[in-house]
Amino acid sequence: MADNDKAAGSTKRREMPDGIWLKCPDCGEILYRKEVVRNRWVCPKCSHHFRISADDYIELLVDPGSFEEYFQDIAPVDALGFRDTAKYSDRLRNAQNGNRGREAVRTGRALIEQNEVCLAVMDFSFLGGSMGSVVGEKLARLTQTALEGELPLLIVSCSGGARMQEGILSLMQMAKTAAQLARLAERGLPFISILTHPTTGGVSASFATLGDVILAEPKALVGFAGPRVIEQTIQQELPPGFQRSEFLLEHGMIDRIVARNELRSTLSQLIRFFNDARQTRQLG
Ligand SMILES: [Zn+2]
């Protein structure tokens, strides 16, 4: 009986007109799509944060029309002639087709409640937001822009980690981004890192966790290796909620969990705080 019900239910769901309803992967509730969109892609029942695009984050965070995009012309190359189940060059071409030629990060300058910032937002839809040479270069250049303009730097991370198809060239981006951020720190300019679901691998192991302030969206997966790999390595079961934002906050790895609809105001507050502190220092 129960099985029949379930089967009937799933048939019904398949018959639902595409795009009007969607199912929350966390609480299982069937949601009215428009309501979820209005709620910034957060489940109104359980606050599950659906993944949103880089464009959506830019729209969410910055003053309307203030985002000025930089470094769009830097394009990736398949330097190693790499091939796994598909050619890297083909994967790149496919990803670029769906992304208007962009790479896995968008970088630029913007205003957040009138405060000027340098902003980078990673794009998971481009090869899992993986960090290859172009992502590293764009982030390094943006950090340089922040240095020259004496501006705060904000990076919204969403990434599976380093881009394995670029091998060592990809891993080198970890050192490159970290070195640039150290220069920013020397100059007393703030870097605010915003971790979204998921932020893992070489991205979590480099710039994403080097923020002066590290914010995370609720329940975001943040870690280096995945839970399955860790369990196999240490031969132990992991505690519940391991590698989620709440667990990281409890263990002092991040500073604050911020719901998506409070992200803009929280960032604005932090930027103002750092700008005031910097001004006071300069006056002193
Ligand atoms: Zn839900």
TrEMBL record:
Pfam families: Carboxyl_trans, Zn_ribbon_ACC. Residues 20-284 form the CoA carboxyltransferase N-terminal domain. Pathway: Lipid metabolism; malonyl-CoA biosynthesis; malonyl-CoA from acetyl-CoA: step 1/1. It catalyses: N(6)-carboxybiotinyl-L-lysyl-[protein] + acetyl-CoA = N(6)-biotinyl-L-lysyl-[protein] + malonyl-CoA. It is found in: Cytoplasm. A zinc finger (C4-type) spans 24-46. GO terms for biological process: fatty acid biosynthetic process; malonyl-CoA biosynthetic process. Binds 1 zinc ion per subunit. Zn(2+) binds at residues 24, 27, 43, 46. Its cofactor is Zn(2+). GO terms for molecular function: acetyl-CoA carboxylase activity; ATP binding; carboxyl- or carbamoyltransferase activity; zinc ion binding. Keywords: ATP-binding, Cytoplasm, Fatty acid biosynthesis, Fatty acid metabolism, Ligase, Lipid biosynthesis, Lipid metabolism, Metal-binding, Nucleotide-binding, Transferase, Zinc, Zinc-finger. Its EC number is 2.1.3.15. One of its GO terms (cellular component) is acetyl-CoA carboxylase complex. It comes from the Bacteria. Acetyl-CoA carboxylase is a heterohexamer composed of biotin carboxyl carrier protein (AccB), biotin carboxylase (AccC) and two subunits each of ACCase subunit alpha (AccA) and ACCase subunit beta (AccD). Belongs to the AccD/PCCB family. Component of the acetyl coenzyme A carboxylase (ACC) complex. Biotin carboxylase (BC) catalyzes the carboxylation of biotin on its carrier protein (BCCP) and then the CO(2) group is transferred by the transcarboxylase to acetyl-CoA to form malonyl-CoA. This is Acetyl-coenzyme A carboxylase carboxyl transferase subunit beta. It comes from Eiseniibacteriota bacterium. The gene is accD.
